[in-house]
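S1.2 Input.
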Amino acid sequence: MRGYRIANRCASEVTVKRIVCFGLAAALLPGAAHAAQIFEKVGTYAAQFLKIGVSARATAMGSAFTALADDATAGFWNPAGLVNVDGTVVSLNHTEWPADINLEYATYTFSPGFIQGKVSMHARGLTMDPQVVRTIYRQQGTGEEFDAGDMSFGLSYARFFTDKFSSGATVSWMHMGLADQSVNSFVVDFGLLYRIGIRGMKLGMAVQNIGSEVDFDDRASKLPTVFKVGLSVDTYRSGPHSLVTVGEFSRPSDNKERQNVGVEYSYNNFVFLRSGYNIGYDSESFAAGAGVALQTSQSTSIDADYSFVDMGALGGVHRVSLAFTY
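S1.3 Output.
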């Protein structure tokens, strides 16, 4: 019986390693295909709001969160990381995007009880003020206004398959509206997380925004699928001090390859300082932020985070996040 258990465990680990290798290959193949592409497909893909980061903590670390993904917003960054969430968490996130555009993201993460793993329900909305209707002959406005905005509602599920390997997926219903036109579609995200076991190292992989084409004006547009591979390391831990370093490579289907790097310093798991950099982006570059975690009882806490991302000529992007754990 003992020999059977050992053989079964070995077979499971081999399967996990094969899955990890396959994920790496899937993420790197688009980069090889890109070598033959002269021009990027910027501005030709729909639903760009799907790529806007939703968490103050993650974006303060340069959005290099695929391999860390250990809080309630993991449903966006890498669903496999939801297994790291303790207790039941309600997370609220606000982003002030350029041009007076706001992005709101809320999630409710819990253990269902009747099945293993974690479940997360989330909603996202991109909003802006009503816009003036202009024509070529009445460029100051016709006296009419129109609305524009996007939203999505999703469900994520993640579970451990071995003590080192977890996987998760997110399915979302998306709605985009512009004046009297609108489109709907389903979007799927998929993620893997492998715990290497050396200095807290984790390897994360995710594929975001998989879905069918959408059609606003008889011209179909694809969704902006993104492949990501990341690594996180516990760089330093001594007494109340700790430092986590993260990095990742991403390949969006509508732009060039990108890299993200970041760090998070923690004092006694109470005060957090973060910084990062977005490499290869059109606008985003330096990022920084801070946070506090207030333990209100043995099982409840409140986390508050803030981040700033430099968008160059577009100005700065501010994010605020609150998480309630019980």
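S1.4 Remarks. The domain at 2-325 is CATH 2.40.160.40 (Porin).
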